[in-house]
Each structure stands twice: as C-alpha cells, then as structure tokens.
Design goal:
The protein is an all-alpha fold. 72% of the residues lie in helices and 0% in strands.
C-alpha cells in the first residue's frame, strides 16, 4: 500500500510550472528552487525532483518518462502473475501436458488428433487443485 501524498496534485503542478519558468529566466535562475520551495512550503529537493521529472516527461532531459515507468510497472506485475500461474501449473503437472499438446499441435499442423486433445483436457479437469 502506497503512502498518502504529502502535497496535493494542484500544488505540485503549480510549483513545477513556477520552477520551470524561473529556471528558464537567467535573471531568476539562481536559487529558484530554494525560493519557490520556501514560498510554497515545499522541500526544495522535492521540488527539484518534480522539475526533473517534468523535464523528462517534456523530452527536455534524458530519462524514463512517467508513462513509461507506469507501463514498466504494469508489465512487471503481469510477469509476476504469469510466473506464479506457471509455478502452480508446474506443481500440478498441467503445464507439461499443455506444452506437450502445444508441441504436437505445432509439429503436426492442423492434423491434430481430437482423441489426444480430449484425453489431455479430461485428465486436466479431473485433477483437483488444492
């Protein structure tokens, strides 16, 4: 479970906009994050991280964008779930039978024997998973 957010999204967006604008102006660049952080009650290092991520998302700096990070996180969760399912199938022996059937289907082309498919399905369904 993720920790609750310390700062509202609106404050984060506003602070990021102000900091990015201040950093683009050479006259206000020095100490911009410190100054804006103090004005809005945000730790300057937190603000620096937000600005850095905003620059990455805008394509102005190298790094992993927020969208890519979310996609990677979702894919990693899917891989964990598939590995867990494979472990369960391995423990019941169903995975090997399915792999053998798949290999026969691939090597034999469309001419797969229906009796073999029926026997594998019936053996798999007759087992109880505990």
């Amino acid at each position: 479970m993720a920790a609750p957010k310390k700062y509202p999204d609106e404050l984060r967006e506003r602070a990021t906009r102000l900091a990015v604008a201040a950093r683009q102006d050479p006259a206000r660049r020095a100490g911009a994050l410190q100054r804006i952080g103090e004005q809005l009650g945000i730790n300057p290092e937190t603000l620096r991280g937000w600005v850095k991520q905003a620059e990455i998302d805008a394509g102005q700096a190298p790094g992993v964008t927020t969208a890519e990070a979310q996609r990677i996180k979702a894919l990693e969760a899917e891989v964990r779930e598939l590995r867990r399912a494979n472990e369960m199938a391995d423990s019941t022996g169903q995975r090997n039978e399915c792999c053998e059937m798949k290999q026969t289907l691939i090597s034999g082309g469309i001419r797969c024997r229906a009796s073999m498919v029926i026997s594998v399905v019936s053996r798999s369904s007759s087992r109880s998973v505990s």
